[in-house]
Each structure stands twice: as structure tokens, then as C-alpha cells.
Amino acid sequence: MKIGIIGGGAVGLLFSTYLSLQHKVILLTRTQAQASVINEKGILLSNSNRNIKYDVTAYSKFEKLEKQDLIIIAVKQYDLASLMKQLMILPADTPLLFIQNGIGHIKFLETLPQETIYVGTVEHGVKKTEENQIHHTGLGITNIALFRGVREKFTCFPIGIADVFPFRFHENYKEMLFEKLIANSVINPLTAIFKVKNGKLIENLHYYKVLKQLHTEVASVFPEINPKHSLEKMIQICQSTKENHSSMLSDIMHGRKTEVDAILGAVLEHAKEMGQALPVTTMIFEAIKGMEKESI
């Protein structure tokens, strides 16, 4: 398959490496400088066992993204609006996969002309160390569900790599996104506030008590999701990515804008629509907004 990937961040680079083993991948980066170093030196992926170089073709100009069998959009949710013009002119029969955190991008997807649109959630731990280097800190899975289109299209989806980069397909995209949103709403902000890796949230008894309290409140506004299963899933993510810095902690550490509006902001908006107050979540949200303001 010919696969285009938009976004040269940690997740975009991760998808580019593993998918390039079985498919022809083109990566679209924000800057020509990043595209140049990737074309010259490849993408270097390190994990606990080894360092591997992957040869991937990269461009910074959207028009270089020729006809593809699938295009994966791997930018932060707040960057989607800047891609609207380019996405609107892509062929309507080109399938798109969006792998953003939160649920705020759903309204954005409704405006697009493409016939087949997938949404996904990523449970891998990955850290970008250089423009062309990533460290795969925790093996996970990529969950995928159909947002729009015919279900038979799943048979045409690219093949993952069972042991290190598997895909899992879901029937209900809302439940899939809600489950990941609950996990992100707890793991991301708490690791950012406590300044710890993901694993510490379940290893430190005091942090774990806060985790459970925040999880209980957030999960209460998503009755579609079994809270016991959701908590177990969250613990599993913390274990599998225990050495990973969450994206929100990394953003705070490097003075970047966080995705707190797309994550906790979406939860609070959803709670407001349900007429439900979330005092703990509100406090955590305001704490992150304050930290974000001080770090940028």
C-alpha cells in the first residue's frame, strides 16, 4: 500500500517506521529542515533491545503527497484547523485515519468530504528525541474504528506487526474514543502535575489514590463505559508505558502548548451538557492551564 502520514512528531515518526516495513510510506513534516534530515539519515528508532534505522521519504510541501491508498493524520488536535484547506482538496475516495487525543475533532471530521474516515487511539509509549529520532518506551496497540464509510473497508486496511505494532479494530468509535479519553484525562494531567513517568501513578500509593479519585469523577459522565474495566485498562497503560513521559508532561517541560483543552476541556464540556459538576476535574484543568501559562 501507499501510505501518507501527516505529522513529524513522535507518533507520526513511530507510524512511519513500522509501516515502512511493509508499505511505501511518505511522511509530511512541518519544516523542510526535518524532512531533509530524515531523507539524509532516515528515522532512527530505539527501544530496550536495539537501535534501528528506517528509510522513509519525507516532504514539507503538501502537494508532494500524491495519490495514496491511506493518509494518516498524526498532528495534535489543535493543529487540525490549519490542515482544513489541504484536506478538503484531497480525493473523496482517499481513506483518512485520524489519531488525535480527545473527542473534539469529531465535529471537524463531519465537515470533510472523504467517503471513508477512520479514527484511532494510540497506546504506545514513544518519545521524540531528535528531529529524526524516537525512543519506543512502551509497546501497546493502535485501536481503530470506522467513523464514516462501509465496514468492508477494514479488509483493505494496512497490516500491522503483531508483536510490536498491532492494530485492533472496534465496532463503536464513540466507546473507543471515550475509553481512551478517560485514560488521557487522568494519566496526562496527573503526570504533568506530579512531574513523574506514567508508571509512578500506580507505584506510588498517594498518587494512585488521586488517580482513582479523578478516574471515578471523569468516568461518571461516560455511562457507556464500564468504570471497572476503564480503571483496569488505565492501570494496564501505566504499566506498559511505565518509563514514558506523557505528552502533557513533555509539553510542560519543553514550554509547549498542551492538549488539555482537547482532553480535560472536552470532558468538562461533556459534563456541562449532561448537567453534571466535576469539581476535581475542574481543579486539575485549571492547574494545567496555569502551568501551561507559566511554561510558555
TrEMBL record:
Keywords: NADP, Oxidoreductase, Pantothenate biosynthesis
Pfam families: ApbA, ApbA_C
Family that this chain belongs to: Belongs to the ketopantoate reductase family.
One Gene Ontology term from the biological process aspect of the record: pantothenate biosynthetic process
Gene3D superfamilies, A to Z: N-(1-d-carboxylethyl)-l-norvaline Dehydrogenase, domain 2 (1.10.1040.10), NAD(P)-binding Rossmann-like Domain (3.40.50.720)
PANTHER family: 2-DEHYDROPANTOATE 2-REDUCTASE, 2-DEHYDROPANTOATE 2-REDUCTASE-RELATED
Descriptive protein name: 2-dehydropantoate 2-reductase
EC number of the protein: 1.1.1.169
A GO molecular-function descriptor: 2-dehydropantoate 2-reductase activity
Task performed by this protein: Catalyzes the NADPH-dependent reduction of ketopantoate into pantoic acid.
Domain Ketopantoate reductase C-terminal: 174-292
Protein's pathway: Cofactor biosynthesis; (R)-pantothenate biosynthesis; (R)-pantoate from 3-methyl-2-oxobutanoate: step 2/2
A GO CC term assigned to this protein in UniProt: cytoplasm
Domain of life: Bacteria
Span of domain Ketopantoate reductase N-terminal: 3-147
The reaction(s) this protein catalyses: (R)-pantoate + NADP(+) = 2-dehydropantoate + NADPH + H(+)
InterPro entries recorded: 6-PGluconate_DH-like_C_sf (IPR008927), 6PGD_dom2 (IPR013328), ApbA (IPR003710), Ketopantoate_reductase (IPR050838), KPA_reductase (IPR013752), KPR_N (IPR013332), NAD(P)-bd_dom_sf (IPR036291)
Top-rank EC class of the record's enzyme: oxidoreductase
